[in-house]
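Step 1: inspect the first sequence and its tokens.
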Amino acid sequence: MIASSNGKCNPIRRFSADETLRATNNFNPLHTTQKSKLLPWSHTIKVDEPIDDAHYTMYMGSLDDRPIIVKEFEGTIMEDELRSFAIHDIVIKTQMSNHMNVLKLLGCCLEFRVLLLVLENPIHGVVNDKGALSRPIIHRDIRHGSFFWDHYLVPKFCNFSLSIKIPPNLLHADDDVNGIFGYLDPNYVISGSVTEKSDVYSFVVLLLVFFIGKKPDNVGWGTKFCSIIENGKAHIQNERFSKFQRSSSARYD
């Protein structure tokens, strides 16, 4: 982790197994706030694919009267790969620990087969400042399950396991395609080249999910790659967004 941070690393607390078990009531399913698939490298899933075999689970809990979230990595992929996901998540979170839109990492627990992450609890449940970093970080997993709301309704991104840094002096990074169909930038899927615009595309899809109230669907390649984009264009042409904005503004005037 220190090597990934150019010798600089923000200290994080080491939690004991007993503390994480007490906080989550022995990982009680009733404490579950989110379950999701971590995608093995070079693998994509459809947005509606079942997550019974989730690769990580996030539990709401409380420790020393402080609300926290415990992120447990598990699932059907190899432990070494899960461990790599967890470490990668920690590295990115520590580098972005001071950003208001990133869920703060409090520490980790090393007493399980795959380490656990302990995060702040933003209370409300389910854009990073890339210019503040020496190398841009591409999230690659911007979707409705990738962030929480705090009590001021400020979004906090929480999963950086698929994130990738743009190499120095370049505007893109070449890598295996990872992500969820429907949110993925078609150019990235076709070329394997990810840029900051890839996150912008995913963010636009996320906004359309909120505005239209539909999940993105993968219906093929090319211009029809994400049907919600076509749906959004239809809404704009019919001025439905402007009506939505006017009605929203009226409620807050």
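Step 2: inspect the second sequence and its tokens, then contrast the two.
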Amino acid sequence: MADQLQTIEAIRKRKAQYCRYLDTKQWDGIEAMALPDATLSFFNPDGSIMLVGKTPLTFSTPHAFQSFISGAFATAQTLHMCGPGKVVPSSPDEMKDVWCMEDQTVVNWTAGLLEMRGGGYYHETWKMKRGEWFLKSLRLERTYLKLRLWQGFLYSFRDSGSRSREVGNL
């Protein structure tokens, strides 16, 4: 039992590390924590594959994911949070897990400020290699997704030190 608890804790730490790497833009760290042939896929609440522009968010290697995410989200402000996960062994050197998640992304876009907030569940497989756990597959199945576009948002400061705020309508 102690060994299984240590394994679950090791994978929990790796999952927290994944979220931290995303939010702090440590793209190489994400690639390094996954097997070279790991797959990563991201799905909308209706079950369709998510798109950024015309790019489907399904990747056959962590390098492909890292290459995309480092460009598409370079200036985005993000926060990824995962709740307690369920981790179960599928073999002595492989674990399957499910994590509830919620994320927020803010992008300064040409038409204004784009805000995305969503949640769902990560379904993952982790594999033991060289004494360490590596991501083998990741599938995010969103249960909700909310997008907002803010236009005409302006803060101005007056000489008197008081602050006025003007917000444009969509």
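Step 3: confirm your contrast with the notes below.
The two ends are 56 Å apart (CA to CA). The beta strands are 34-43, 51-52, 55-56, 58-59, 77-91, 94-109, 112-129, 132-150, 153-157, 163-167.
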